[in-house]
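Model: You mentioned two targets. I'll fold them one after the other.
Researcher: Yes, keep them separate.
Model: Target one:
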Amino acid sequence: MNNSNMYLEISGVVEAHPDRIALRAGNGDELSYGELDAEVARYANALCETGLRRGDRVAVQLRKSIPSLFVYLACLRAGLVYLPLNTAYRSAELDYFLRDAEPGLILVEPEQRTAMEDLAKATIGATVMTQEEVTGLAQRAAGSHEQFPTATSGPDDLAVIIYTSGTTGRSKGAMVTHDNLVSNARALTQQWKFTGDDVLLHALPIFHVHGLFVANHCALTTGACLLWHDRFDASDVARDIKRSTVLMGVPTYYVRLLGEPDFSREACCSMRLFVSGSAPLLAETHYQFEQRTGHRILERYGMSEAGMITSNPYHGERRAGTVGFPLPGVDVRVADEANKPVPNGEKGAIQIKGRNVFSGYWRMPEKTREEFTPDGWFRTGDIGLFDADGYLSIVGREKDLIITGGYNVYPKEIEQVIDELPGVIESAVIGVPDADFGEAVTAVVVATAGAQIDQATTISALKTKLAGYKVPKHVHIVEALPRNAMGKVQKKLLRERFGQ
């Protein structure tokens, strides 16, 4: 049996370039690929010494750190199933995840240990350890245990369970296989031209696909260096841009960088690529960034269930408001209700197929069947369209679709028009229950300080730009839109707040 373990993609670099720098911390500490491999071996041995066996789940709710990266890589190498948990999750959410995934080991910060032990006893009785304890085990394993034979994993063997954000309902555990990870890493490094000369500034959290898979895998499978930041701080990132070649971020990062006075074209002279994802990037931010730095941000499209799906081109036009073309080995179609492709320019449901697509939802076989078409395409839940040149645009979520007076309204279309109005920073459009229309189109708007924006002026302006049924019946002005940890607007919370 051939070994499809994702860690082999990294160990190949270790064998070829053991002395190359793999990790560089903010304080200047460095770790070579050989040293990284030895640390991962120690951690893999330490995890196995707790009694874990292949296929057991390891739930991890830790602050971002280099040792927490070792834990992830050690789980891959040992054939354990890594279960990242957002550090913002609280007891009620954690109770659900633990009962659902039944991990054999839970890793937490020291101050969370007592609460997590109480929770674990009430649910599954799993062992709870702090990272310091695992580090201690790894240190005791030093020397004689600096070797660890990478577990033999089939392509369909489970590597990670990553829970969907739950912004539109109950979270589901997406089962990500080793082959999913390997195929997506190879496609991205090919598409984005990664080499061993790159330095990737890593400021993303690592409980999410973007930071855990995309950033780590692109760097470590090509022999590049990870310039490690435990968190995003705009001034720190602006400083370290000068010694980097790639930055991956969410739109908020780029907005904040534009607010840094020292962030300039000169500061970005060593950079070759800025990547944005996890939430839509406003066209205004796209253009402002290019004016300031000379770089056009590359937007891509991905999700927990498939890693990365599409990307704007590395060479060629990067179109603001689009997410580019399907990645190598990934098929994308925009389909109607009968799952038939629609012509370019028409909106429809985005469906995908490829080695990157997950194997299903953990312990939800019926939900898994629902989310795949009869001919095997995964329903992403996103609404999109291809333009005449084949660029894909995301225009909304199927569950965000508003049906008002019998007409279908896609929020993204209206948001784009509102965002162009003078004084508007950003907006979110939702549907709220309405006795006459079924749902009433409702806009929630963030305005600049001092802007003369209210419901009447906004509606008046939109009546000249949109069909009548698309014009919001209500407009609410707020200081900020609620977002999850990756910057996605939580429309569920807006519907709860303004649905009355």
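Model: Target two:
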Amino acid sequence: MRWLLWLMLLPWVAGAESLAIPPGAGETSDCLECHAKEQDEFQQSRMALAAHSADFINEWSSKGRPGRCLDCHAPSGGEGVVCVDCHGNLGHPYRKLSTPVVCARCHDAPGEITVRSFFNSPASRRGEDCLDCHQQGEGFSHDFIGPTRADFLLGVARLHLSLRREGGGDTLLVRIHHRAGHSLPGGTTGRSVWLQVETFGEGEQPLTRRLFRFGWYHDPIAGWRDETLAAGPGKVIEIPLESSVRSRSIRAKLIYRFRPGTLDKPDPQAVLLDHAVFALPAALGDSR
């Protein structure tokens, strides 16, 4: 029933405090006199430049620069999010915000299900919230960290390879498990997680390569479809091994991308989440 409570609270928190903000209101300098530490921390976050990053500008431009994107990336008309976009413009003292409700205004916007998927995650059932992972430092830090920070994704996902042998042929089982508090990847439609599976023969000769993409997928007819990796249960990919290919080993990689496009398209920020190697039994290779 928590999702119902969230839906009931969202208009009150997001609408009353965040949506009716005139352009240019709440510039960060307004809060600097009393909250210099929080200001400095927030300026280091991606949220402060949400409408100014190269990744956003490129993706936004490729879609015709729709104004609705700025409702979350620059609600007050600046380079990104400012204090009142979350805390409201009703004046001091500002009421305490509730996470993840306040986060849902943008992180459940079209093309995102981050908060919705959180409510179905093991993290939510343990009583955690967004700040347990996306906050650092002592006390309430405004330096909201995410996957663009070095080492933030370290250990977040794991690969396990195994083989199922049956009369009809051999099948590689690739198990993907992650510990993020929401679907992976979080964020917008431009991000993705790729599974690359390669087979090698004698002398490390490359034989086959298979790619699987997880994230948002756009169908020309049906529109956007969610194909992210759900939190909790994990996912198993079954890959039949061709009997005519004399494979000796298999290598798998799980890669997090920030930029749209295929895995072969350069992305200097891409992160290797995990990799695994599986040596096929000699008898299996000889039987082919």
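Researcher: Noted. Anything on target two?
Model: Residues 1-26 have pLDDT under 50 and may be disordered.
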